[in-house]
Write a structure and sequence with these properties.
This protein is of the alpha/beta class and about 200 residues long. Helices cover about 55% and strands about 10% of the residues. It is built from nine helices and four strands, in the order E-H-E-H-E-E-H-H-H-H-H-H-H.
Length: about 200
């Protein structure tokens, strides 16, 4: 049974309704107080002795950073301050960690290699697509194949016949891949001997 998200006393200093909605969605069981800015919070701060999370939107990045409220113990309070974009990005990261039902997080945590790779490769492909990359298949295959062959060689202490058998490859195919992928055999043997 998944754990429920922890309960916090949260103070939100923003007028952005999307940031407010995102905080309410992530911290459903928490106490959330909203103020338009730090000045409004300061005038009401006597009612907020315990604050676990203080999230403040900086509407003008060029302006001076507002001072932290003096009555709060910042050794016990998480203080997040930034533009709307920074707050949204930070809340997205928090949501990934806090939300137990996150399908991508559950896939990565379930322990299967296939699901872990699916999540990681999905992130990689998305990043490469945003950068207008092409020919991802050979890039990904070599990125996976090189550490796989290196690990097999380390496991067999550099014995190429045993490594080829472990990988399900012909010995000559393995030798060709070692050359093509520039896998240093001496370092592989040295690492295997050190781990014993």
């Amino acid at each position: 049974m998944p754990a429920s998200p922890p309960t916090y006393n949260i103070v939100l200093l923003t007028t952005d309704s999307s940031v407010q909605a995102q905080v309410q969605q992530i911290f459903t069981d928490s106490s959330i107080s909203m103020f338009r800015d730090a000045a409004a919070f300061q005038s009401e701060s006597l009612n907020h002795q315990q604050v676990d999370v203080l999230i403040e939107e900086l509407s003008d990045p060029q302006s001076a950073v507002t001072p932290r409220p003096e009555h709060l113990d910042f050794t016990q309070t998480l203080f997040i301050q930034g533009s709307r974009a920074v707050l949204r990005q930070t809340l997205n990261m928090i949501q990934t960690v806090v939300t137990p039902g996150s399908p991508q997080l559950n896939k990565a945590r379930d322990g299967s290699l296939e699901n872990y790779l699916e999540v990681k490769m999905g992130e990689f492909v998305k990043g490469m697509r945003n950068g207008s990359a092409r020919n991802l298949h050979p890039i990904l295959i070599s990125a996976v194949e090189r550490p796989l062959i290196t690990s097999a060689l380390q496991e067999t202490r550099g014995n190429q016949i045993q490594a080829a058998e472990l990988l399900g490859l012909n010995r000559n195919t393995l030798r060709k891949k070692i050359v093509d992928l520039h896998i240093p055999l001496k370092q592989t043997k040295l690492r295997a001997n050190r781990s014993v």
